[in-house]
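We read letters as residues; the fold follows as tokens. A sample entry reads:
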Amino acid sequence: MITRRQFIAGGIGTMTALLGLSLVPEYKVIDQLINSIPVLLYHRVGPETDDLTISTKRFEQDMESLSQEGYNTLSLAQVKQRLWGGHLQLPDKPLIITFDDGYLDNYTNAFPVLQKYSMKASFYIITGMMGNNDRLAATQIREMEAAGMDFGSHTVTHRQLAELSPQEVANELNQSKFALEQTLGKPVNFIAYPCGSYRPDTTQAATQAGYIGGFSTQYGFAMFNNHLAIRRIPVFHFDRSIAYVMLRKGLLPSMLG
């Protein structure tokens, strides 16, 4: 099993060779990336009807590969400690798995696979759709939370926050947070911006609403330079192996800034 440093160094070597980036200062990149964490972004798991849906078989292959490679998924409590600069001893090869939109198949298809491979994930819920047809209901959310899964806000209506007025943004952030906290009976500290849409004042509003972390859709490893705009690695049904996805959408964008 390769170490985290070996994985990053090997990935940088591969990418620089393939792309001819001979001037990339590898030692500096390694030092910067060694404290970064890949954050995978999934949406739906089941029959592939669109780009955002991967098959259950493919999802299980991803989880099996990650498990075999020694990745250890983090809870949001651990991510919170990491953001606050605490003395958290991270496991080797840490990984964060996220799901946006709160589809029912997250419970029926993804949840059993996550449990099979002892993986944690966080699910970002559109609270105005909670309990609707094909969406997670409060009872399922509580069951998943009791089994070690985490939950965060994906706003109330899933509108793009960069296109809303400051008051509308505040309403989306505050009301979704309150609804989830009522469902879970615990604080909700993280948000994923719908469609990755936000402005500088959106992250300020998120801080004012009480969030400590926000997930974007910008490609790359999470370096936590901006706690309210954390990078992620999306996974689509047409993608190749999860290892290739993490290199192409995670490591390479992080190398190039």
